[in-house]
Amino acid sequence: MTVPVRSRAGRAGPPGAPRRGRRALLALVVGGLSSGGNLLVAVTVTRLESIGGVGEFALAFSCYVLGSGLVRSMVTEATLAAGTGVATATRRVVLLGVLCGGPVGAAGVAYGSPYLVGVGLALPGLVLYDHAKAVAVGLGVPSGALWQEATWGAVTGCAALAGLLGLVDAPWVVAGWAVGGGVVGVVVAVRRGYVLRPGWYVDRAQRRVALGFGTQFLLTTGSAQVSLSAVAAFAGTPVVGALSAGRTLLGPVNLLLSTAATLTLPYLARTRTASRSVRSRAAVRVSLLVAVGVLPMTAAVALLPDPLGRMLLGGNWELARSLLVLLALESLFAVPAAVGFAGLRVEQASRRAILLGVLLGGLRVPVVVGAAVLGGAVGAAGALAALALVSAVAWAGSYLLLLRRVAGHTPAHRWDARSHPPAHRRHHPVPPMG
């Protein structure tokens, strides 16, 4: 069967489609299930593996994140924006999955890493899974994505339980997670009538746009995954493993941050037609609100007692413990950075956001790699915390400067957020953050 999609006008939806508020709630639940499953796998591997093995897993997982992000930026977001061509877009998804998964699997064979082999083989199905989920949440019926995520979560839970009970080793836990997600993705795609034969049948303009967005992703958001691979190449997988072990404990914090980022955009959008002072106060208010929720969690992780840390991470706790304060600061500094980025999206300052993202992304790779080579895991964690502080100042400061500049060009009689602006000044709703 084919997946129902929302009409281009946005007034009609598929039969049984939820209202916008319920759709947003279901999207948050789906995101929470996904993050919870990934956290369960990470905790299981960290508990069962050596620090080098944890580094190999972290590298394989970053390849999955990189491949999934490329597919989202080059294919999925364009499909969501157009609202059409859902069934045929999967041809490009599968092609990108094969092109990304092939080198990852080959690298795993060359270096004897079962984690890279498993993720490389499953990557076409995994990116298909993520694409189908995003389409269901954005255009179709989100409850389908909820069942999809629940199925993968059950498979992941069984694999993790088998590992914690000593029935299988950590590579088989990751294989169960990766292959389970890939199989679910293929089954969902077949049931919805998607075309699974790989291909790239778009015109030259669409191809150029897709390549542009893919390059932008690699230079901005994807630079975090690229830097992790570079650290593994130049400083060794044990350094990556120590960073991954510490970040595993911060998984609930990062889940809260991602959820808050989803809600920040519409919150700031509601004040877009208000005065500069109102919008500035809204940005400060939401930053403080998120920080109040994040600060106790980061403090709890940074001050985690040794017995609890050993119970969660096993023998890798000793290595992770020295990094927790720095990694907790990185998570805390991410709050104003996320608010500033959301503010630029609301103001539709795409050129400013791209330029700033490229500058920060280009800075991340050499700084983190250099610090890892010189100072090991502690040096890399310190570099990540420092870069997070720079990002917080850059994104938040850029948004506030933009508000000041816009206010300087705004007539004194502008309408506030409680008024209906004149028809010739009325803004269209801001598209959801991709």
TrEMBL record:
The entry's protein name is: Membrane protein involved in the export of O-antigen and teichoic acid
- Record keywords, A-Z: Cell membrane, Membrane, Transmembrane, Transmembrane helix
Localization: Cell membrane
InterPro entries for this protein: Poly_Biosynth_Transport
Source domain of life: Bacteria
Q: Cell cycle: present as a keyword of the record?
A: no
Cite the residue spans of the region called Disordered.
413-434
Q: Chief localization class?
A: membrane
Annotated membrane-spanning segments are 24-45, 51-71, 92-111, 170-190, 211-237, 249-270, 282-304, 324-346, 353-374, 380-402
Q: Where is the composition biased (Basic residues)?
A: 421-434
Membrane-topology annotation of the record: Multi-pass membrane protein
